[in-house]
């Protein structure tokens, strides 16, 4: 019961690959290495260097490895950059998802776990995000993920009476952090953890963007979830789909409570042993005080739980980065 992981050489995808293997599900990876790293893929996992935009490559991989399903992680994931590069974002995330769906239909593969994003909600007016909240993305990235969910929904309707009706779920989450394997770490230049790590390694002082928000300590509160927990939820979703079990169209993988930027900075100093006082910079335009998602549905169906403390998140991420 092989599963294809698109984007399996990336930070999140590589953790999903390991979680699949640990569960006894053979993975195969397709990645163009535009942001992923070949070294993140275990040597014993089949690897195809190709773009998800290459329909023939995707279909051939599905057929050759007799895939039971796809965990579609590949995509352009930088919300801020997507504002400057909307056409690239839509090509990778919308057209890429369309091509994957087309290749799946041609190969008779009918199970899909879609790595979506809580960016589909935009800047919600409520502090706790649930799956039924109206979708109002505020970046081309968020829009592309929402359109991806629509494409999947529509393909499921279109194939409902076919030989291989599409079964699917979309997993939405905010900030993925930490490491579940010391050889895999977050390489993004736009995420908080690697930004702080690189500052500390360079002997520089990390910055908090605003400390006058309407939160307990004045800094933004966000969802931070450990990458190993994220990977585990993808695997359970794949198992449910393959077994024909009931599954929701979408799940939030949320922390329920969230962490403030100051709490993250305090943990960074505590865990790394580098004593620092973060600089306070200006607010970033449009940054809401608090955005945190529930994980109730995922806890019910996907064995979702936050199994790591903030110190665990920092420690595993820091150890992986230190091992570079």
From TrEMBL:
It holds the Pfam family Epimerase. It catalyses: UDP-alpha-D-glucose = UDP-alpha-D-galactose. One of its GO terms (molecular function) is UDP-glucose 4-epimerase activity. Residues 3-254 form the NAD-dependent epimerase/dehydratase domain. Its EC number is 5.1.3.2. InterPro entries: Epimerase_deHydtase (IPR001509), NAD(P)-bd_dom_sf (IPR036291), UDP_G4E (IPR005886). Its cofactor is NAD(+). Keywords: Carbohydrate metabolism, Isomerase, NAD. It is an enzyme of class 5 (isomerase). Pathway: Carbohydrate metabolism; galactose metabolism. Belongs to the NAD(P)-dependent epimerase/dehydratase family. NCBIfam families: galE. This is UDP-glucose 4-epimerase.
């Amino acid at each position: 019961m092989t599963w294809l992981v698109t984007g399996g050489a990336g930070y999140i995808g590589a953790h999903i690959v390991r979680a699949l293997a640990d569960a006894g599900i053979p993975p195969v990876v397709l990645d163009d290495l535009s942001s992923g790293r070949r070294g993140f893929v275990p040597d014993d996992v089949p690897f195809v260097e190709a773009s998800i935009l290459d329909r023939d490559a995707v279909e051939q991989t599905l057929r050759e490895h007799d895939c039971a399903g796809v965990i579609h992680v590949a995509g352009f994931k930088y919300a801020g950059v997507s504002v400057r590069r909307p056409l690239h974002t839509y090509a990778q995330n919308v057209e890429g998802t369309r091509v994957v769906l087309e290749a799946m239909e041609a190969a008779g593969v009918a199970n899909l776990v879609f790595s979506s994003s809580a960016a589909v909600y935009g800047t919600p007016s409520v502090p706790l995000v649930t799956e039924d909240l109206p979708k109002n993305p505020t970046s081309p990235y968020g829009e592309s993920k929402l359109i991806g969910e629509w494409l999947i929904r529509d393909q499921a309707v279109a194939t409902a009476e076919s030989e291989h009706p599409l079964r699917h779920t979309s997993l939405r989450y905010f900030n993925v952090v930490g490491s579940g394997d010391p050889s895999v770490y977050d390489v993004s230049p736009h995420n908080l953890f690697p930004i702080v790590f690189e500052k500390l390694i360079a002997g520089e002082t990390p910055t908090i963007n605003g400390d006058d928000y309407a939160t307990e300590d004045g800094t933004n509160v966000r969802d931070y979830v450990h990458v190993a927990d994220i990977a585990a939820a993808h695997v359970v979703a794949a198992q449910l789909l393959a077994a024909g079990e009931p599954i929701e169209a979408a799940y939030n993988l949320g922390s329920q409570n969230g962490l403030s930027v100051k709490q993250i900075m305090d943990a960074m100093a505590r865990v790394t042993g580098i004593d620092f006082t973060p600089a306070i910079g200006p607010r970033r335009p449009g940054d809401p005080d608090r955005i945190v998602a529930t994980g109730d549905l995922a806890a019910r169906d996907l064995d979702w739980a936050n199994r790591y403390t903030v110190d665990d998140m920092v420690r595993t991420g820091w150890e992986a980065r230190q091992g570079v």
